Amino acid sequence: MMSNALDELRSVVGDGRVLSDPDATEAYRRDETPAVDPGHPRCVVLASTTGDVAAALAWAQRHLVPVVPRGGGTSLAGGATATDGCLVLSTAGLTAIRELDARNEIIVAEAGVLNADVDRAAARHSLMYPPDPSSFEISTIGGNLATNAGGLRCVKYGVTRDSVLGLEVVLPGGQILRTGRRTVKGVTGYDLTGLFVGSEGTLGVITSATLRLRPRPATYPPTLAAGFPSFGAAARAVGAILAARQRPSLLELMDSATLRAIDQWKNTGFGADVQALLIAQDDGEQADAAVALMRDSCEREGATTAEVSDSEAESRQLLELRRLAYPALERLGATLTEDVCVPRTRLPDMVQRIERAAFRHDVFIATVAHAGDGNLHPLFVFERGPPAVPAPVWAAADEIFRAALELGGTLTGEHGVGVIKRRWLAEELGPESMAVHHAIKRALDPDGIMNPGKVL
Amino acid sequence: MMSNALDELRSVVGDGRVLSDPDATEAYRRDETPAVDPGHPRCVVLASTTGDVAAALAWAQRHLVPVVPRGGGTSLAGGATATDGCLVLSTAGLTAIRELDARNEIIVAEAGVLNADVDRAAARHSLMYPPDPSSFEISTIGGNLATNAGGLRCVKYGVTRDSVLGLEVVLPGGQILRTGRRTVKGVTGYDLTGLFVGSEGTLGVITSATLRLRPRPATYPPTLAAGFPSFGAAARAVGAILAARQRPSLLELMDSATLRAIDQWKNTGFGADVQALLIAQDDGEQADAAVALMRDSCEREGATTAEVSDSEAESRQLLELRRLAYPALERLGATLTEDVCVPRTRLPDMVQRIERAAFRHDVFIATVAHAGDGNLHPLFVFERGPPAVPAPVWAAADEIFRAALELGGTLTGEHGVGVIKRRWLAEELGPESMAVHHAIKRALDPDGIMNPGKVL
């Protein structure tokens, strides 16, 4: 039966689009999340059209084969982890930009278009696509939508959801659903667009999206880089900037461990007086004045250095420091990147709780934060080796998640639940919400074949 | 059985909170929508706490009594129309502002708080609550959330959904669900907040919301009022302003019929050279320069007058012209306020289609538009009399709805589907979306008792 079923799949989506040889499917078993133990897919479908996706989902429903949708495979929460016997459905081949309507500031992009390519297409019309996860050069719009990805510019422009007007989604069974609209306002029916964004492939597969673009600032924004004697002082500066009602377009914070890792790699020469670095940009009409005001706030809060770029090149160079954080830390060992979010005034408390957890469980944690949003990424570094996160790391992570909830925050600001945070889900959501989640899941995917083992 | 059931209801929510005398329930049968024929409620519950709402919904589920939730009763789509034998559940008595956290820029307001009172509470901390439907002085936050209300400032700040972080919702059966969070980012689980916002009381009753506030501009924004020889010319000026990538905080358009109605009432003295009036504000840091640029755009597009306010009083006075539109038109007869939205570049086309429909069906239509969002309110005026919309009005409305869809738009930009647009719903959504809507409705309200006959 099985080989007959695969033949049938090949006949509907095309022979060359189906991989079933274990050597070929190996590359589709895992995403960027360390230490999850993926299953062995039965097959991989390399879709290149919505029709391919629909045919694959119809086939999967007929044979009750679990489906694991996959974009760029950059999930840090195990969202694209294969399960045994599943169909991995790659939408990376849906690469068309179907339309760019510059006057209405919208773009219709298929799921496999890279985030950076959407922004580059927009740039040709002096527009931009604001959501910019750190993976922007390698992650797809489909994955960004499935996880409601964030990024550095969210502090001003909001998350992925805030830039989506409508979707094309293939439902379990293969029906093609269109949600939302092309207009900036509209309340006809339920917000199905919002329901699918961030649902991590558990309700259907997004194949295309109508995205909202925004005017691109005429010049590259100036950058402030301010060093502080402690993470706490830097977090207080963030508080001062926000209390002054400034609206930076980027407000990032790196802790001492992160700076040391960058320094070891790139000889940046941070002195002992720089135990935390705040990087800020403003892309408004009075950017220079705004950045100068932020520098003043930093100096009042005890910044030991505070440098404002005086050219685009220097501005890009200062921001590059932030971009180096992850690769610098990944040089040190295996990493688990966590992602909690707290009300932004609780940033200093959360930082203390992270330090306490690291100390108590004797684990190495470096923290990078989208500080303006209260979104912290405590990054655990541990010895490379077997594909399992060491127990003390999970123990510290557990303590950090509970601390985030206690401080009025959330388990995940932008990476999603995936496989790695499922066990904490009910703690944040509570029984009523879990029941509603399960009711919606059953309503849209009664056989539970869409990305099983993720989120719920 | 029936009177026993009412006694039971009185015993759980309190005797004084239940109205069942027809004289007393009469005032709760209809909202602001003309020409719908409401049913006779069995009873009205005047809830003042979430517990009252939960008790009422548990009772309704036990006895399978349909529930019509009601806020300020200002719906223009019949969203709060009573059905025969229903329980009208008023949340107008849930009037507490549970919390205002100025540093995190959030407010937790119960469903019955008036929109204007949320904004006034925010103003005491130099903050604002941006969504401002025309009914802001009399509509409740609960109703605003249930319909995902828009308003004049949406063009810059987005609709109600864009200002909501989390909800407290009572589900059919009485369970209390909390959705969302207090943080500005968060992706734990499905976007239930978005699902309930705009669901028009068909899935549950919103009792409280965590809303996002924004910095209040330090001064009242300056206003531009520009008169044009035709609606088409004014619509082209809107296009020019947006093509120049300006970001006004308000961009409103009134047609000739509206201006004549205001003039008849208030003797504003618009000349024959003013057949359309564009009103714009900018609340940014360089507001005066921005408004001057908009004036230039208007003059280039043939404005016959273009006046910029030179004081707060004058600015408020110019905006007041816009606020007079509805009451001025309501003086002329019975009105049906419609609410289509098109991609904003199609504004001139939509205006033509409205004029054509008015001519063809010989009905009187005045149009007011949130022009920056492409959201038009064609307002039908007809003879007061029996509570039924004349057939030619519906025929013209039908033509207008279809034209909006044809132009890539939507049936309703901000008022909702309610009872009056149900028959066009499937036309916009299509069969797959209708099936998903019904599946979600069944999942959350299996007995179909929540606001029956609305939306779906």
Biggest interface, and residues per chain? Answer: A-B, 81 and 81 residues
Radius of gyration of chain A: 22 Å
Biggest sheet descriptor of chain A? 8 strands, antiparallel
CATH architecture of one domain in chain A: 2-Layer Sandwich
Mean pLDDT of chain A: 96
Strand residue content of chain A: 15-25%
Can you offer a commentary on this structure?
By secondary structure, the first copy, chain A, is α+β, with helices and mostly antiparallel strands. Among the domains of chain A are: 2-90, Uridine Diphospho-n-acetylenolpyruvylglucosamine Reductase, domain 2, CATH 3.30.43; 97-215, 2-Layer Sandwich (Uridine Diphospho-n-acetylenolpyruvylglucosamine Reductase, domain 3), CATH 3.30.465.10; 219-312, Alpha-Beta Plaits (2-Layer Sandwich). In chain A, a hairpin with a 4-residue loop joins β5 (97-101) and β6 (106-110). Helices cover 36% and strands 20% of the residues of chain A. The model of chain A has no long low-confidence stretch (mean pLDDT 96). Chain A has 15 helices and 19 strands. In chain A, α1 packs antiparallel against α3. At the A-B interface, β9, α7, α8 and α15 of A face β9, α7, α8 and α15 of B.
Essential attributes:
homodimer; 456 residues; Uridine Diphospho-n-acetylenolpyruvylglucosamine Reductase, domain 2; Uridine Diphospho-n-acetylenolpyruvylglucosamine Reductase, domain 3; Alpha-Beta Plaits; eight-stranded antiparallel beta sheet; five-stranded antiparallel beta sheet; 36% helix
